[in-house]
Every structure is written in C-alpha cells, then in structure tokens.
Task: structure prediction
Amino acid sequence: MTLASVHLTDSYFLTFAAMLFSIGAVGLLIRRNVLVMFMCVELMLNAVNLTFVTFAKTLDDIRGQAIVFFVLVVAAAEVAVGLAIIVAIFRRRRGGATADDIDLLRG
Amino acid sequence: MNPGWDFHAIAPEIIISATIIVVLIADFFFQYRRRFQTSQLATIGVLAAMVPVVTLAVNGGTRQMFGGAFVVDPYSLALTGFFLAAAYVTLLLSVDYIGDGDYYQGEFYVLLLTSLLGMMVMTSARDLITIFVALETISIPTFVLAGWRKHDPKSNEAAIKYYLIGVLSSAIMLYGMSLVFGLTGSTLLRDIALAAPRTPHTSLLIVAVFLTLVGFAFKVSAVPFHFWVPDTYEGAPTPVTAFLSVSSKAGGFVAMLSIVFFGFFAVPDTWQPALWVLAAASMVLGNLAALRQTNIVRMLAYSSIAQGGFILVPFAVAADGHAARSSFEAVVIYLLIYGAMNLGAFAVVIAFARRTRSAEISTYGGLGSYAPSFAVLMTVFLLSLAGLPPLAGWFAKFVMFRSVLDAGTPGATVLGVIAAVMSVVAFFYYLRVVREMWFHPVPDSVNPEPVQIPLALNAAIGICAAIVLIVGIYPQVFARIGELAAGG
Result:
C-alpha cells in the first residue's frame, strides 16, 4: 500500500485535532516553563481551528472556515498580552522562566 | 435577508466604543497634571450610554441584527444596564486609587471600558462565535488590569495566573464550540436549539456541551475551576478585583444563561448533571474555605466563589418541574443584587485600605468605635451577602430557593438543602468581620482617627448601600426587572 492510496476521511482530521488538543492540554498542565505553556495553548487553539475547518468541509458550510479567522485574531491578541505580562515579570526577576518561581500568593 | 443596521439598538455599544477612542486620544494630549480628566471622560461616556438603554427599554420589543446573532430584548437591556451601572461604580472606586499611584491613568480607563464593551455585546450575543468574541473582549483587558501595578511582583503574579487560566479556559470552550458546530451544523443558538435534540451522537454532544461549560466555569470561578481566584483577587489592584468579582463574573454567567436557556434547553441531560456538581462543589468549598481566611480580600474571594455556587443552583434545576421561568428570573435577580452588595463591600475595603495599607481582618478591630458610619455600612454589606432580611441579599436567596421549590425533584431538593446549610455556614465568616469591627479593641498598628474618604468613594458606597437597602425592603423593584427579562 502506497501512501497515496490511503484515503483521508474526516475522522482522521478530527482524531488528529483531538490528539493535538490533548497534547496541548497535558503540556500546559505539566510543563513549568511559561513560554512552553504559551506554545501549548497555541497548539490547543490550532486543534480547534482544524476541527472547525474539517466540519466546514463535512457540512459544506463556509462559516466554519470564517470562524477560524476570529480564533486566529483573538489568539494573536492573547499572545500580545501574555508576552507583555511575561516581560513585566522578567524585568523584575532575572533567571529562569518557570511557573514554580511565581509563588508569592498561596491559597 | 436584509443585514440592516439598527443604529438605535447598538447605540449603547457605539457610545462606549467612541468613548474608548476619545479617552485614548485625549490621554495623549492632556498635560500630566490634568490626566485625571480621562476618568471624567470615561464616566461621561458610561452615563451617556445609559440613555439609549433607557429609550430602548421604553420602546420595548425585540430587535434582531446579523441574522439573529445579535438580539436586543428586555433581558439584554436589563443586563446591559447592570453592567453600565457596575462599571460606573467601578470608575468611582478607581479614580482615587489610580490617581494616587504612580501609574498611567488613561490606559486604565480604556481597558476598563473595553472590557465593559465586551460585557454589553455579551448580553445581546445569541451566537457561539459572538459569545466567544465578547468573552475575549471581556477577558483580555482584565488580564492587563490584574497586572496593573507592574512593579509589584504580587500584581505580576496575579496577572500571569489569571492569564494562563483564562487562555486555557477559552481554548477548552472553543473546542467544545467546534464540536457543537460539527454536531448541529450551526453556531446560532436558535438553530442549535432546533438541531440539538435531533443529533444522533448524543454522547459526543454531552462532551461538547461539557467542554463549553467548563470554559465558562473558569470564568465564573466555579469549584473545581476556582484555584486562580484567591491569588488573582489578592494580587490585583483592589478596584480591579471588585470589577473581576462582579462584572467579569456576571459576564460569564450571562454567557451561560444564553447558552443553556436559548441553545441547549431541550437537551437537559447534556448540562444539568455537570452544573449540579459545580453548584454543590462551589457552595461547599467556597464557604468552608472562606471560614479560615485572615485576609479580607481572600475571604471575599472565597465568598464570591460561594455566591457563584448559589447563582449556579437555579441553572442546575432549570429543566425540572416548572422551574424554567423562575430559575431564569432567579439568576438575573441574583446577579443584580450580588453586584450591588459585593461592589459595596469592596468599596469599603478600598476606602479602609487607604488608611491602613492592609487588608488583614485583624486591622478592622474597633472600627465601630472611631468610624461608626463606615462600620455600619460594612456591616450592612456583609449581612446582605449573608442573606439577612431586610437587606437585598435575602431576596436573592429567596428567588434562588423559589426556583428549587418549583423544580421539586429529589436532585433539586438535595441541592436546596446544601444551599440552606451553606447559607448558615456563611454567617460565621461574615459575622467574624462584623464582630471584629464592633467588639474588638483597636490594634496598635492602626491610627484611630476618623477615616477621610474621597468623594468618589463615598458616592460609590452610597449608591451600593441605597440599592441594598431599597431592594431589601421593596424587592418588587428587581422582581419586576427579572420578570421583564424572562419575557413579560
């Protein structure tokens, strides 16, 4: 069986998106580097985009693709704010960027 | 279909958008000493936006735009009015706090108003994507506001924790929404309501709705998605904390109301069990954790988690018996009353912290002996939060229990019993602060002279106290708003 003969159905894409989303979610929970945590969020959002686009194709509904633009724009805004917060923290704190260092407040 | 613009219907949003731009530009031109005028511009904008809300309410009826994605009806108007009023009080709380700090001013008000704009759009949003964009418009400015004191590590920490939880929750929510779109073929809540009962993939729909609700559970700080709340509330500037605990939280609840009641009401199996657990867990853990707090802001943080649990109770029973209407009313009324009393409590905390620079409950000792009017008002807000008649809080609890009685199922009864027990537990921690103020001596660290409060803070406390007292004695005022919101 050659690679070209594999027929990619929608469920492949949906499963792939679910895997991407899970990798992102688990990564966000277990990684301690704040920048890597950011990348995990991006992974989750891209899994969402992939799901929307797949459903847009399945349902033959262009709205699913239009939604992706909204998600992209919001993700960009989120990253801008997030990096600004990280810069604010690093100005005060030299050294590593781990979430464990940020522990002044405990509940 | 005519995509026509109904300018009257979106006039409040247009006014706030214009105010945002004006404040941003004006801040650039004002001399440094006159920067406080940006707050006046912001206040004028918020008050001006109330005018079209009133005229729309007088005209009545329902106005739709963008194919039903944006709806202006009595429900959205009632909550838009609430958000504008809450933003006005927050502005009053912020003026002196921000003015006294060494930080920029104009940007603060721009961010506050942008968040307000998101809330106003949220009340009218009847489409998953509109709801998502509105929610992000609410959240993203509040991430920055939480880290406002950027040279204070505590404020930085509050911001990063809030930010990470915020983006995680919106990613989870979006994934749920993408699955809902795939299963129902639409993002319009109206179409989802028609398609959801007919989908063959019931179990996948449960997962989709669950993920969507988890996203909102973070925003409304329901247990077990609450762990960011105490840290963020303590670290953020206190006026921002007041804003987060009232407006931002109410924004999440409004989104939940729209999604549950307009989208998935016909398929209660998908949301009712999850909301039941969230409501019970928030009430129990919020109230018990509040008992052992020594910092009043952290105590109010756990108290707001617990109050969120009480607001979730009507959600969890909405589909049982004939509770649909009364539970919708209960959520709206509870939100309005909670806003007034919680903003009032935070206003007193802010005013008092001007003197002591501390939020420890022990510094409130003997407040009744040297600032009696101040202590009386704090007592009013705390007892109202506890639900003691004749203060507004009792009516909020009353409508909540009424929806439980209307439901009448065993699940609803159990939840009602938990709510009743936890209402009693809540008395302990609210009364501890009251006892500290009236029956304990003044600690050595506090200077027992009458507290000078700026005019704006006085006005904020006065407005909240008036609402708490008037609604407590004449609950018909808010009951009527709740009835109108639920459709006549």
Observations:
- Chain B touches chain A at residues 129, 132-133, 136, 140, 143-144, 147, 150-151, 153-154, 156-161, 163-164, 167-168, 170-172, 174-175, 177-179, 181-182, 185-187, 227, 230-231, 234-235, 289, 298 (CB under 8 Å).
